[in-house]
Design a protein that fits this description.
The protein is of the alpha+beta class. It has three domains: about 25-225, Beta-Lactamase; about 230-370, Orthogonal Bundle (Arc Repressor Mutant, subunit A), CATH 1.10.10.10; about 370-430. Helices cover about 45% and strands about 10% of the residues. The strands form three sheets. Strands 2-1-5-4-3 form a five-stranded antiparallel beta sheet, sandwiched between helices. It has a four-stranded mixed beta sheet with strand order 8-7-6-11. Strands 9-10 form a two-stranded antiparallel ribbon. β9 (about 305) and β10 (about 310-315) form a beta hairpin. α12 packs parallel to α14, α13 (about 335-340) packs across α14 and α15 packs antiparallel against α16 (about 390-400). InterPro entries: GAF, GAF-like_dom_sf, OmpR/PhoB-type_DNA-bd.
């Protein structure tokens, strides 16, 4: 396929592709197809196969319905404060015509896959309600399986998902195209813009349109930025490979270079090769290996960014993990939690990175607990890194208002985790 992000090749028969992919989907869900090596059928795009595997590991099956994460006043308050609210007129101007013609929906989600706005004709909205494609519902892959906005967030790239390419069977009569949207100042993922409709959307124009809409939104947000003294920005939270924005371009770094850059950010005064080696490898390190890695890093980033003796950054770079800690220092816990995209370089086992990761996570978690704000606790618990946090679940259950429909669910989760962790009795304090 010439473009892996497009659902159909030029001249492909949509009906035949639906049948082919549908058969492969049923075989995969029944365990008869592994999608690895020679077992991946040629009609299954790699981006779809990878998403099916992620979805299958996160969901109990292909017949579930995405949960409602935000509703009523809570939803209104959340999306009014969200950065994408400022570009909603751009979305409506560029995509509103598609939504108003009765054949499509326009949807906007945040970085967690929560739908903030879903707009279109009444008949389309009613059809979408049957699969919980409604404001407040959680449409990331972990809760909804393969779908355009959720998968666009997962891979940080625009794409189409066509009919039976969706993991959930209830969504397979729809086709969608989505593009991620970033904060132009920090590179942080803000959410995604999506167009959902019928098979007619499986064409290059719909993908180009949502991508152009995302770029227009980013350009507008960039025009509203106040001047900042930092020369660049590093995003390293919730990703194994850091993203460096510097000199007007964005660059994804390899794992080892990501670790080195984060360590240099943490030590602006500079580090010797021996100190960096210990932070990367512990005591089992060869000086030659460290020098080679640092030499490759300097070639990658350029001498204008990294200098030696000691190794340090020439330019002032900001970072997402430093933004989180600065906000915490100012007592702005809700903003820090919103900025937090996940653990720092979660795939790294370098001692220096592990220490810094624990420090950032521990500061944020402690601050959330200290607020006694059940809505902030819920945000923490609804993320992969917080789903099994027994102490947070206990605090959340205590802070929920009596009579809240979420309280029995929280208490039950406390019981489950207490049993899994081998605690002899259910913590009494979570009942009170």
């Amino acid at each position: 396929m010439a473009n892996p992000w497009l659902a159909l090749d030029l001249g492909a028969d949509p009906a035949e592709r639906i049948r082919q992919v549908g058969r492969a989907h049923e075989q995969f869900c029944s365990g008869g197809l592994s999608l690895s090596g020679d077992q991946q059928p040629p009609q299954i795009r790699s981006v779809v196969a990878d998403s099916w595997k992620r979805s299958a590991s996160a969901l109990p099956g292909a017949d579930g319905t995405p949960p409602i994460d935000l509703s009523d006043g809570e939803l209104e308050e959340y999306r009014a404060a969200h950065p994408l609210a400022r570009v909603l007129p751009i979305f409506r101007d560029l995509l509103g015509g598609l939504a108003e013609d009765g054949d499509n929906l326009m949807a906007v989600c945040d970085a967690y896959g929560r739908l903030l706005w879903v707009e279109g004709a009444g008949s389309m909205l009613r059809g979408a309600e049957q699969m919980n494609f409604v404001p407040g519902a959680r449409w990331d892959e972990a809760h909804a399986g393969t779908n355009a906005p959720g998968t666009a967030l997962a891979i940080d790239h625009s794409l189409q998902i066509f009919a039976t390419e969706h993991f959930s069977r209830s969504v397979q009569r729809w086709t969608c195209a989505a593009a991620p949207i970033h904060d132009p100042g920090t590179g942080r993922l803000l959410g995604a813009i999506d167009v959902t409709g019928g098979d007619h959307l499986a064409n290059p124009h719909s993908l180009a349109l949502v991508r152009a809409t995302a770029l227009a939104a980013e350009a507008y947000l960039g025009s509203q930025l106040t001047p900042h003294t930092a020369a660049g920005r590093v995003a390293a939270l919730g990703r194994n490979e850091a993203m460096l924005t510097f000199g007007g371009s964005r660059q994804r770094l390899g794992r080892r270079h990501s670790e080195l850059l984060v360590l240099l950010l943490e030590h602006p005064e500079g580090r010797t090769g021996e100190e960096l080696g210990f932070d990367l490898y512990g005591e089992d390190v060869s000086p030659v290996t460290v020098r080679a890695e640092l030499s490759r890093l300097r070639r990658t980033l350029g001498p204008e960014l990294v200098e030696s003796r000691p190794y340090r950054l020439r330019a002032e770079l900001d970072s997402d993990f430093r933004t989180v800690t600065r906000l915490l220092e100012r007592g702005r816990v809700a903003e820090a939690l919103e900025e937090y995209a996940g653990p720092l370089l979660p795939g790294s086992d370098a001692p220096g990175i592990s220490r810094l990761r624990r420090l950032v996570d521990g500061q944020l978690r402690a601050a959330v607990l200290a607020t006694r704000d059940w809505s902030l606790m819920r945000t923490w618990l609804h993320q992969p890194w917080g789903a099994d946090d027994l102490e947070m679940w206990e605090a959340y259950a205590r802070q929920l208002p009596h009579g809240s429909p979420a309280r029995p669910l929280a208490v039950n989760r406390v019981r489950q985790l207490a049993t899994e962790y081998g605690l002899a009795t259910f913590p009494q304090r979570a009942r009170n």
